[in-house]
Amino acid sequence: MTKIIKKKNRASSFPNVVSYQEQQNGVIGVEENVNDIIVRGENSFKGWLCWAGIQSLYIDSNNDVYSASCRIHKLGNISDGFKMPEAPLLCTKSWCACAADINTTKIKSKQYTSLVRIAKSIL
Ligand code: SF4
Question: Would you say 104 and 50 are in contact if contact means Cβ atoms under 8 Å apart?
Fold first, then answer.
C-alpha cells in the first residue's frame, strides 16, 4: 500500500521529491524537500540502483562528462564525445551529497521498480 503524506518534514519550504519509506503498515510516499533527507542523515544509497547518467549529467571545467556530480562514472568528454548509459548504475558511494544527485531516481532493490516512473521502460 502506498500513501502520500504531504509536507511531513519542513527542512525547506517547498517539496521537490517524493521519497518512499518502509513503515510497519507498508510503503508510504512522502512529498518533501531533498534537504529533509539530508537532515535525517538518510542520504546514503550505497548498493542502490541509481539513474545518474540517464536523468542527470555533470560536466566539469575540463569538459569531462560524468553521470552525476558524485562523479561515480565518467562518460567521456565534450570534445571527444560521450555515451549516456542505458541502464541504472549501482551506487558505490557512502554518501550522496549533492541535492541534485539526491533528487535523481534511485531504488533500494528491483522489488520497488513499480514505484518509480522511469524504471518501467528500463528494468
Ligand atoms: S552518490 Fe548519489 S547520484 Fe551518485 S550514484 Fe550514488 S545515489 Fe546516485
Answer: yes
Q: What residues does ligand 1 touch, defined as CB less than 6 Å away?
A: 45, 50, 52, 68, 70, 72, 91, 93, 96, 101, 104, 106
This prediction's pTM: 0.89
Strands 26-32 and 17-23: antiparallel
Q: For 33-87, how does the pLDDT look when each residue is reduced to its tens digit (9 = 90+)?
A: 899 899 899 999 999 999 999 999 999 999 999 999 999 999 999 999 999 999 9
**What residue owns the CA closest to ligand 1's atom 8?**
50
